[in-house]
Request: fold
Amino acid sequence: MELKTVEALLDKYFDAVTSIAEEQQLKAYFSSPGVAPHLEQYRPMFGYFKAQADAGEFKKELPLTIKVNYRKWISVAASVVLLAGMVTWFNFNEPPQKQDLGTYDTPEEAFIQTQKALNMLSKNVNVGVSSMNYIGEYEKTRKTVFKE
Reply:
């Protein structure tokens, strides 16, 4: 085979546009003893392809994988989690203790304490209401700017 033809086929081969017949010509050329010295570097590649083609099919038997039944292990894991949850619940959950709800002996004491509690509640509500004034101002400004 001419050297120019081989080089053209190699260019086509590396551009992935060769036909099967052209690849067979390349394999035959590189398996022959008269390979040009500057193309000697491609001999092992085409020799590998030829050796693999001669090797034929893979005939060794492959073992089939065995399915593992994960359902047993999932049920065991769920049981362990349930048991750990129950142990945690019973060890750290204390029974409710009777609390002193602030009962008073006389109605006057109860009235004074109730007034204090309602006064504190009123102050906290007023703080929230005063912050709502800012939102009202924002709405007025937004309506002025965007003119809905």
Observations:
- The mean pLDDT is 82.
- The two ends are 86 Å apart (CA to CA).
- Residues 13 and 19 are 9 Å apart (CA to CA).
- Residues 102-148 form one domain.
